[in-house]
Amino acid sequence: MPFISFVTVAELRFGAHHAGWGSARLQKLEARLATAETVWLGPSLVESCVKLRHDCAAIGHGLSHKDHEADRWIAATALWLRVPLVAHDTIFTDIPGLNLITTLA
Questions:
Q1: Among candidates 60, 25, 15, 90, which has minimal Cα distance to 75?
Q2: Is residue 59 within 8 Å of residue 96, measured between CB atoms?
Q3: Which helix or strand (DSSP H or E) is residue 8 part of?
Q4: H helix runs in 19-93, sequence order
């Protein structure tokens, strides 16, 4: 089962509501989200995010900037779980220790 960060769930739900999706489309989104295990915030994940921001700041990586807060939580979740991150956003490139997958099988 794939994992999904709590932040990603929030972003997807916001985007759907903001775009005015109807109930049928929202139900499809929720069904799709249910196929993944949501990773919720806790003390260990907080520490992972703190370490990631510190490490990124030390090397001048843009993920340390405030405007990438949501992206940082997503990357920290993958690092904390020690799983690859599947994403196409270039902010995730060159993060120390992150296994980034940008192609789908």
A1: 90
A2: yes
A3: helix 6-18
A4: 23-33, 43-59, 69-81
What span, in angstroms and rounded, lies between the C-alpha atoms of 22 and 34? 18
β pairing state of 3-5 and 37-39: parallel
Residue 26 has pLDDT above 90, yes or no: yes
The pLDDT of residue 33: 97
What confidence category does residue 103 fall into, taking pLDDT thresholds of 50, 70 and 90? confident
Neighbouring residues of 72: CB distance < 8 A, sequence distance ≥ 6: 49, 52, 53, 56, 63, 64
Q: How far apart are the first and last CA of the chain?
A: 16
Give 5's strand partners.
Answer: 39
pTM metric for this prediction: 0.90
Residue 95 zone, left/alpha/beta (φ > 0; ψ -120 to 50; rest): beta
